[in-house]
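User: quick one, fold this
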Amino acid sequence: MNLLSFFDNTAQVYVIEADDFIKPDCLDLGDYISILSDEEKERFHRYKNEKAQFTFLTARYFLRLLLNNRLLREKNWIATEPQSFALQPLQSLRDSFPTSWGSISTTRNDDFSSLIIETSPSGKPYLKDYPSLFFNLSHTDNLILIAIANSPVGVDVEKNERNADKEAIIKHFFSEREQQSFFSQPEEERQLAFVKGWTRKEAILKTTGEGLSSMKNYEVSFEPKTDIPIINSISVNNFKIKDFTPKDGYAACLSLLQL
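Assistant:
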């Protein structure tokens, strides 16, 4: 697991690889499935392959673990410096967390009953009883990102070699200005350009919780390397956007809305 800090330590992203935490041969998955909400259980069972199920379950477990730890700490928390440590099976993680993170229990008997995670109509998760603690998560393959912040936050991760009909998606979902940004990229760079633009758009929409119906309210650049990832928005000055590479072969974007 890696811990990354952004925007003067006002947002943190935890980078987790599911294969290193949950393995079918060492855990009773029923205990972990029991912590899921009814809606999450339905989503868990909709996954058709075991690997995707394990990644989904790992993401939801560690989301609760990290949120619970955050709530147990002082209200005026100070983000730790970015750190990393050796990945280990879930049962032996307790001694691996840096002491600055506070006391984190990783047993299967963790009590997350106070963490009521609900979902907005557009799919944005939130804590019913702690509305001032903001979080978001994203996963692809076995890679999981969990973002926690003091203001609305969104995160998205995609594999650089994601298979998709890029041109059709761009023409159908993106504005004319965004299409110009994408098609102005050299042919050999369009795969990465597509992934960069998509993660930027997803991160922003996940921050606002508005869903796909608001895609054209926030126009993003498809330039792979740019200091201006958002090119037009109804509130462009309120966003902080950061591209980053959580792991070789993957692109990610973090979006923070300043209140």
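User: anything notable?
Assistant: The two ends are 29 Å apart (CA to CA).
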